[in-house]
Amino acid sequence: MSQPPSTPVPPADGPELDPGPHDGRPRLGPRPLERPPVDPAQSAVFGRPDGLEAAFAPPHDGPSQGTSPQGGSPQGNGMPLAPPPAESLVRAFGRPAGSDTMLQRPPGQPLGAAAAEPEAMFWSADAERNPWRDPRAHALLGPPAVTEDPDTPPAARAEGPRLSMREVLFGRRVAPRALAGLGLVALLVGAVGGLVGRLTAEGANPLTSPDATLAQVAPAHDRPPGSVAEVSARVVPAVVSIEIRVGDSGGTGSGVVIDGDGYVVTNNHVVSLAATNGEAKLEVVFSDQTRVAGRIVGRDPKTDLAVIKVEVANPTVAALGKSADLQVGDSVIAIGSPLGLAGTVTTGIVSAVNRPVRLDGEGTDTNAVIDAIQTDAAINPGNSGGALVDSGGAVVGINTAIRTLSDSGGGSIGLGFAIPIDYATQIAQELIRTGSVKHAELGVNAKSVTDGTSDGAQVQNVQQGSAAADAGIADGDVITKVGGRFIASADELVVAIRQLRIGDQVTVSIIRQGRPLTVQVVLKSD
After folding, report:
1. What is the DSSP letter of 387?
2. How far apart are CA 16 and CA 13, in angstroms?
3. How many Å is the Cα radius of gyration of the chain?
4. Residue 450: its H or E element
5. Is 76 exposed, middle or buried (0-12, 13-18, 19+ CB in 10 A)?
6. 111: which residues sit within 8 A by CB, 6+ positions away?
7. For residue 373, what is the enclosing H or E element?
8. From CA 303, how far away is CA 437, in angstroms rounded?
9. What share of the chain is helix, strand, coil (3-state, %, to 5)?
10. pLDDT 10s digit of each residue in the chain, 526 long?
11. Among 36, 194, 403, 418, which residue has the least CB neighbours within 10 Å?
12. Which residues contact residue 199 at a Cβ distance below 8 angstroms, ignoring those fewer than 6 apart?
């Protein structure tokens, strides 16, 4: 027996249960809306009137204002309207009592004047189409609706066109006196401005003085004969710069013109690259910047001397002095092209003579020991081959080498060495005559030794058939003297022998097993 369906009972404080559309099971319904209580005063002002269901009130034909039956706010069609204006505002802005004057007056009609005819709604016939009165017209801007006040002063007169400079000067539109006055005023303004500017500048920097003039003494050039300036003026034209170029590389040095036919003496290490490389280019540059090609006449690696020849007419030839007359302390001048700076002059003194110096021929075939003049005149790379000149302007040496510290970068430290000109002249003459040089040779290899009381050169080996072998010098002998020159080192033995000529007979003092001996040696050629 079927039973009637039961109706779900919602909870006391919860949402109602909605029975399912298909299976009959209860389901949760929507939560009820919370409507707060309405304020009666706000409802009376903003609420929909009674009996009105539409969203907006329909138009009404009755009066728009009136008094409510209860004596409250004015109403229209049952709708509350704004309260009447205050009495003070009515007295201030309202129409006077008993006056029939409308708010709008035709233009030009004085205040309070009675109209001759009944006042029309609009001032003109086309006023209905006036955008100012048509609410559907677009917004337009126009002049203010005011009448011109006769008491208002007239507007300022517009500025006329201005005169150009051409019209002022040549248009005859300005009187000549006015132009002259204008020019005078401009001159006065400029003068006053200049005076003010000068006073301002002088006051701004008190350390400057525009009127300052430095006093100069009369020139007093004291260059007597023998002064450095006078000697340099005579010798510099005879000293040349030598440039060797091989592609993008090369080197520079110096040279001294020793003969009017264009012969120049220099160092072998200066021209060694040009002699051993067929692509090298050798050029000689004189003090007047004349540049000519040079050719190697001959060179001697054992003395680090060489001669080159240039084809020039009437070159300045250096005067050759005597190096044997030099003494320690004599003034000397070094002239050359250190670091490529042609015509450089430095001064110093003779620091020592007969100083045996073995030359470092790195990069060249030079293997020389020279009996050098030591000087403290500044000599740097590039001075090689230049002139060492005495106080009389005579060449006494050929600058060849310097002694430097390992960390000094190769610069001068006051230890320069030059080949004595007496020896250089002999070698240069032989090179010019024959193109080569032969030297006297003892025929031994030696090393420097000392026994605490005396120094010497100990023979390491004797070459077979040499002058030393013929004289009976044996291995282990210590050579202490050659002729009249004492030997303190192996280098000094070399320079002592090369000072002699081939075929010279010389007395050589030796110490053999502690006993002093003397032998006669006839020097042979190397």
Report:
1. E
2. 9
3. 63
4. strand 444-450
5. middle
6. 105
7. strand 369-375
8. 10
9. 20, 25, 55
10. 444 444 444 444 444 555 555 556 777 777 777 888 888 888 877 877 776 665 555 555 444 444 444 444 445 455 555 677 788 887 777 777 777 666 556 656 665 555 455 555 555 666 555 555 555 555 555 666 655 666 666 666 677 677 777 777 777 777 878 778 888 898 999 888 888 877 776 666 667 777 788 887 777 677 788 789 999 999 999 999 999 998 888 889 999 999 999 999 999 999 998 988 888 999 999 999 999 999 999 999 999 999 999 999 999 999 999 999 999 999 999 999 998 899 999 999 999 999 999 987 677 788 889 999 999 999 999 999 999 999 999 999 999 998 887 655 567 788 999 999 999 999 999 999 999 999 999 999 999 998 776 789 999 999 999 999 999 999 999 999 999 999 999 999 999 999 899 999 999 999 998 899 999 999 999 8
11. 36
12. none
Length of the chain: 526
Half-sphere exposure of 161 (CA within 13 A, CB side): 3
d(CA 306, CA 298): 6
Query: What token pair was written down for 73?
Result: 């706010």
The owner of tokens 């609410």 is 135
- Token pair in block for residue 49: 């009137």
The SS3 of residue 89 is helix
CA nearest to 391, candidates 406, 409, 377: 377
d(CA 375, CA 355): 11
Rounded CA gap, 500 and 245, in Å?
A: 37
b/e 460-484 (16+ beta carbons within 10 angstroms → b): eebeeebbbeebebeeebbbbbbbe
DSSP line for 240-252? EEEEEEETTEEEE
- DSSP class of 320: B
Cβ neighbour number for residue 195 with a 10 Å cutoff: 10
Written as six digits, the tokens of 77 are 């069609």
Is residue 25 within 8 Å of 19, Cβ to Cβ?
A: yes
SS3 435: coil
Measured distance CA(47)–CA(45) in Å, rounded: 6
What are the tokens at 43? 């409802």
Distance between CA 65 and CA 73 in Å, rounded? Answer: 10
Cβ atoms of residues 434 and 482 within 8 Å: no
H runs (alpha helix) in 244-343: 268-276
Query: Which of the 8 DSSP states describes residue 217?
Result: P
The tally of CA atoms less than 13 A away on the side-chain side of residue 310 is 29
Q: Which residues of 210-234 are buried (b: 16+ CB within 10 A; e: fewer)?
A: eeeeeeeeeeeeeeeeeeeeebbee
